[in-house]
């Protein structure tokens, strides 16, 4: 395998496994937030704002993987 | 396919290369400034339609900022509101044909996040004093000083990467769909981009607000603890 083929493969692996964890985490977070809103509908505003900020934090992990994949594809230091 | 990390200069003003995001940023800035100048010149006690909409937006922003900062939103309204509206317009400007959102490039996001970082320092020093703000880095104990310093850098960095990654991936996916499937196929993805753009603008503004609020209130908590040792 050449460096380019390995790079493409590793970019795909990075994005796929990097999306796995945040996906599970976001699912748990949304489920917990829905549970909390169902119990206390009057505090839905605060909960959903905190949920958005928390989801953004979790999502950052997936975005990091995406950026790493793009670096591997487009700014690879081992490819001339 | 072009790399999303590299920008080609459009033209040169003397030795300075001018790129497409710079032009888009300046056009958005000019539109925002002209619109607000035109609007604020004809403010009436009985608002017209446009003024009512803008008052609604300002009120909603004030409400959100007040809930996060837990104090008067007036000192933060200008910065947070402008950042929110700018990021929103910039994210949605990708819907215009021929325009690439300036936030889809690392440099614009870095500038915005550094603005938030500078505002964090400014508001922290303004409300706690210079020494008082430095003391908040040693909260809860002095062992946390390196971690608090690293936190300042990493959260600014993640602010950059979050906005860049989200907007850029949207543009990138649309480009790939367009080259694979052709005309009119990426329209559902563009509709999704509208949603992502609005959510990311909201998150950017709220996170900036959270950082500033933390810098302001950490010192307040520390001071109140010193005053009433229980």
TrEMBL record, chain A:
Sequence similarity: Belongs to the ATPase C chain family.
PROSITE patterns recorded: ATPASE_C
Site label Reversibly protonated during proton transport, positions: 59
Keyword Cell membrane part of the UniProt annotation: yes
Natural source organism: Novosphingobium malaysiense
Gene expressing this chain: atpE
A single GO molecular function term of this UniProt record: proton-transporting ATP synthase activity, rotational mechanism
Protein name per the record: ATP synthase subunit c
Pfam short name (any one): ATP-synt_C
Known function: Key component of the F(0) channel; it plays a direct role in translocation across the membrane. A homomeric c-ring of between 10-14 subunits forms the central stalk rotor element with the F(1) delta and epsilon subunits.
From TrEMBL, chain B:
GO cellular component: plasma membrane; proton-transporting ATP synthase complex
Chain segments annotated as transmembrane: 20-39, 78-96, 108-125, 163-187, 199-217
GO BP terms: proton motive force-driven plasma membrane ATP synthesis
Cell compartment(s), UniProt: Cell membrane; Membrane
HAMAP family: ATP_synth_a_bact
NCBIfam families according to UniProt: ATP_synt_6_or_A, PRK13421.1
Family stated for the protein in its record: Belongs to the ATPase A chain family.
PANTHER family assigned: ATP SYNTHASE SUBUNIT A, CHLOROPLASTIC
Protein name, per record: ATP synthase subunit a
Designated gene of the protein: atpB
């Amino acid at each position: 395998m050449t460096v380019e083929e390995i790079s493409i493969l590793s970019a795909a692996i990075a994005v796929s496994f990097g999306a796995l964890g945040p996906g599970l985490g976001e699912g748990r977070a949304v489920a917990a937030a829905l549970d909390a809103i169902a119990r206390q509908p009057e505090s839905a505003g605060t909960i959903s704002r905190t949920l958005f900020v928390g989801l953004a934090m979790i999502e950052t992990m997936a975005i990091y993987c995406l950026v790493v994949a793009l670096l591997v594809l487009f700014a690879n230091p081992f490819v001339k | 396919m072009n790399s999303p990390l590299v920008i080609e200069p459009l033209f040169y003003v003397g030795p300075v290369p001018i790129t497409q995001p710079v032009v888009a940023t300046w056009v958005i800035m000019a539109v925002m400034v002209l619109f607000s100048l035109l609007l604020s010149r004809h403010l009436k006690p009985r608002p017209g339609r446009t003024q009512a909409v803008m008052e609604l937006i300002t009120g909603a922003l004030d409400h959100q900022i007040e809930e996060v900062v837990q104090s008067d939103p007036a000192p933060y309204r200008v910065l947070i509101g402008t950042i929110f509206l700018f990021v929103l317009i910039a994210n949605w400007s990708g819907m215009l044909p021929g325009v690439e959102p300036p936030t889809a490039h690392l440099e614009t996001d870095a500038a915005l996040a550094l603005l938030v970082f500078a505002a964090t320092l400014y508001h922290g020093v303004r409300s706690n004093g210079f020494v008082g703000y430095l003391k908040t880095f040693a909260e809860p104990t002095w062992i946390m000083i390196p971690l608090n310093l690293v936190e300042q850098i990493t959260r600014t960095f993640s602010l950059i990467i979050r906005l860049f990654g989200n907007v850029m991936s949207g543009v990138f996916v649309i480009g790939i769909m367009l080259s694979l499937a052709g005309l009119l196929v990426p329209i559902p993805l563009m509709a999704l981009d509208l949603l992502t753009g609005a959510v990311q603008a909201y998150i950017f503004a709220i996170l900036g607000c959270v950082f500033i609020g933390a810098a302001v209130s950490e010192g307040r908590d520390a001071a109140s603890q010193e005053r009433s040792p229980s």
